[in-house]
Amino acid sequence: MDLKHSRSVKLNDGHFMPVLAFGTLASDDVPKSKAAEATKMAIDVGFRHIDAAYVYQNEKEVGQAIRDKIADGTVKREDIFYTTKLWATFLRPELVRPALERSLKNLQLDYVDLFIIHIPTAMKPGEELMPKDASSKVIVDTVDLHDTWEALEKCKDAGLTKSIGVSNFNHKLLEMILNKPGLKYKPVCNQVECHPYLNQSKLLEFCKSKDIILVAYAALGSQKDFEWVEKDGPVLLEDPILNAIAKKHGRNPGQVALRYQVQRGVVVLAKSFNEKRIKENFQIFDFELTPEDMKAIDGLNRNFRYFQSRMFVDHPNFPFRDEY
């Protein structure tokens, strides 16, 4: 097996996805140009999987960075695995393809490698990313996700995306897609919050049984500067057990948290716009955690969510009511 595929997993549609991804989400106070700089650094360091989304509002910059790295000969387009996400205001089936085309236009690319439903809770269609009523309550929409999924299948058939998947789905919502009459393509992945404090072991087992890859976001915990993140949450990277394991291997706790996911068959996102950190986050392929380490990290689970998405709690598709 060549190096490229040894650091990748095979998806249920035959495509390969690199197991370590560079995340491009940044808070509003970070200038958009930073996303371009960081993406270029990440590609230079060795990242080949770029995880992005329409709602991050920086796809123009990220796309430019990818095209610059193709132009200077660092990579070819086919070396890069690019993920974008269908935002919740575009879940109506007739809005799906135009939403993807908008991302492609921003990126100036002909196709993406993966297109996923960002969240299963539809919101009122329109240009506002977070449509709210006079009392600042999110305005939701009711959409049959079967219809949304069919529209994603058509995007795959049209060659606009190589693979399709979902994000923030629980096992019931996944079952609903898998049991859809006339299903043409299964989701290749389910991207969810996953870290030692929320290890998603039941959802991981379920996904493995259905040949769906679990992709972990917030794998290093989360910054407090996003409005929807719990402010008083525990700081994952300060965890004493993670730090003890890191010390034993001569690593930092972030590298241990990322390595943990890769060893349990999870594709993991690492997000940082800091050059030193980007380099460190990529250095997880030259050491291995022992079975004892893995067990100790499993033991840190406390089912704690940084991203609780409470504004959608009344939505019929709110995914976090169930255990997994």
UniProtKB/TrEMBL annotation:
GO molecular function, one term: oxidoreductase activity
Species of provenance: Phyllostomus discolor
Site residues (Lowers pKa of active site Tyr), renumbered to this chain: 85
A Pfam family annotated for this UniProt entry: Aldo_ket_red
Residue ranges occupied by any NADP-dependent oxidoreductase domain in the UniProt entry: 20-301
SUPFAM superfamilies: NAD(P)-linked oxidoreductase
Keyword Cell membrane: no
Gene designation: LOC114492418
Family membership: Belongs to the aldo/keto reductase family.
Keyword Ribosomal protein (UniProt): no
Keyword annotations from UniProtKB, A to Z: NADP, Oxidoreductase
Active site: 56
Binding site for substrate: 118
Name of this chain's protein: Aldo-keto reductase family 1 member C15-like isoform X3
